[in-house]
Design a protein that fits this description.
about 475 residues; about 0% strand; 2 strands; two-stranded antiparallel ribbon; mainly alpha
């Protein structure tokens, strides 16, 4: 037994057992994939389509692979989670709040952007940075996986860049492999990973820990720099293409797939924390900072991860008009991962509420301008791709709620929902953690403004009284 600083008695769970638990989730995801797509040929076809896609931000993986092959992304994600856990064991990396969050970002974005091959140049770019700066590899493994935010960059260079006489080339409709493309993808990926590692340490000081998605902020800046160079030399591109909404008939099956993964975490957490159940309330209903594993125990952390995931699932269902898509899976499992490193229901709620209210207002204004139904437009906007994702990914601003309260968190959520639809083009839609990039901007520039306004308003009130 061990006692944390809050005098909570914690049942020790070794690093190997933690890895086994999450590899078990990977296996559950793979099995779910085969349940959704029973034919091996369908899984194989879907995996092939994922590997050969450009994987730019906002591409709906389930629409990409087709309704008959919707199990393939579950298989891809399950394999990737197992690979991450094996990398932790091989490098003797401690599996705590930060590394769990990194693993679940890989797991989640394997439904939308990350594949079995496009993550590695970025991963090793961070490792090279560590070796050059004489840092132990096991201290940067989590960051190495975070850096795979820019994995679309590797896919684009390897398979899709189409140089032309125009200033900006477009992304080709079909993947065409070439040795030159592979070399470019690997080299640029290594450079990008190195840049993410360089920027991550610098930026942490600038936002004073107000975002959990520091790597997303760093990846956004690295992507912005690389895309700027691409455009200057004539290798830019215009965008990820049209958004593909998936048919409603698949929503139930995809929601069930998510639920199975969350139930696994919930049951496993309850079994592990049989003697710690009194502390589950402390993490689920409370506010905390840092790794939850050391503060509340591994079992209670798993329970919190499941509860936060179900809250995201509930928000999605309450929007009524939103459809399931790969990016939604990515943001949900990102929150699940960071529920081990700072997110709880209490810190999620104000931010989600801020995005929801803003969505309703903006949808209503759009309807008033267009002369259409205000109520219908408002709720349609709440369930739109950008607003759904902003509401869930916005939970990365949990430290804002923790440090400055629910009101500031609410307004931060409002600002985030306005900015995030406009930041993808800055990095060429190649940073999968675009919301993390946007949140970095919000907490670095706008939250200090909110705090200044709150201080000024409070001072005036005192003077009047």
């Amino acid at each position: 037994m061990s006692i944390n600083e809050n005098k909570v008695e914690i049942i020790p769970v070794g690093n190997a057992l933690r890895a086994i638990v999450f590899m078990g989730l990977g296996l559950v995801s793979i099995i779910t994939g085969f349940v959704l797509t029973p034919l091996l040929s369908g899984i194989w076809e879907g995996l092939g389509l994922q590997q050969s896609a450009s994987q730019l931000l906002d591409i709906n993986t389930f629409a990409l692979v087709g309704e008959a092959n919707i199990g393939a992304p579950f298989v891809n994600a399950g394999i990737m989670l197992i690979v991450v856990m094996l990398s932790y064991l091989l490098t003797k990396t401690t599996i705590n709040g930060g590394t769990i969050a990194a693993a679940f970002m890989v797991f989640g974005f394997s439904f939308a952007g990350k594949t079995l091959w496009n993550v590695w140049p970025l991963f090793f770019g961070v490792i090279i940075h560590a070796l050059i700066n004489k840092k132990p590899v096991n201290t940067v493994t989590g960051l190495a996986w975070f850096s795979s935010a820019l994995s679309p960059l590797v896919s684009v260079f390897t398979l899709y860049i189409r140089p032309s006489e125009e200033t900006n080339a477009t992304i080709g409709e079909k993947a065409v492999f070439s040795t030159l493309g592979l070399v470019l993808g690997v080299v640029v990926g290594l450079i990008a990973g190195y840049l993410v590692a360089t920027f991550a340490g610098f930026l942490a000081e600038k936002h004073t820990g107000l975002t959990l998605y520091n790597a997303g902020f760093a990846a956004g800046l690295a992507g912005f720099l690389i895309f700027a160079v691409m455009k200057v030399i004539g290798l830019g591109h215009t965008g990820p293409g049209p958004w593909h909404e998936f048919p409603n008939i698949a929503n139930g099956r995809l929601a069930a797939g998510i639920a199975v993964c969350l139930v696994y975490l919930l049951i496993t957490g309850l079994l592990i924390s049989v003697k710690e159940r009194g502390y589950i309330d402390k993490i689920v209903a409370g506010k905390y900072a840092g790794s939850a594993v050391e503060q509340f125990g591994f079992g209670a952390t798993l329970v919190n991860m499941a509860v936060c995931g179900f809250m995201c699932l509930l928000y999605w269902k309450l929007t009524v008009t939103a459809n399931a898509h790969g990016v939604f899976f990515a943001c949900l499992f990102t929150v699940v991962g960071f529920a081990a490193n700072g997110i709880s229901v209490r810190t999620m709620a104000p931010i989600m509420a801020g995005v929801y209210v803003t969505s309703v207002v903006l949808g209503g204004i759009n309807a008033a301008i267009a002369g259409t139904s205000i109520i219908e437009s408002a709720f349609n906007y709440v369930g739109s791709k950008n607003m759904l994702i902003a509401a869930i990914f916005g939970c990365g601003m949990a430290p804002v709620v923790y440090k400055h309260g629910a009101k500031i968190g609410f307004f931060a959520g409002m600002i985030h929902s306005v900015l995030v639809p406009n930041t993808g083009g800055l990095h060429g839609w190649m940073n999968l953690y675009n919301n993390g990039f946007c949140i970095g901007l919000v907490v670095t520039f706008f939250v200090p403004m909110l705090l200044a306004l709150a201080a000024t308003f409070g001072k005036k009130q005192k003077e009047e009284n």
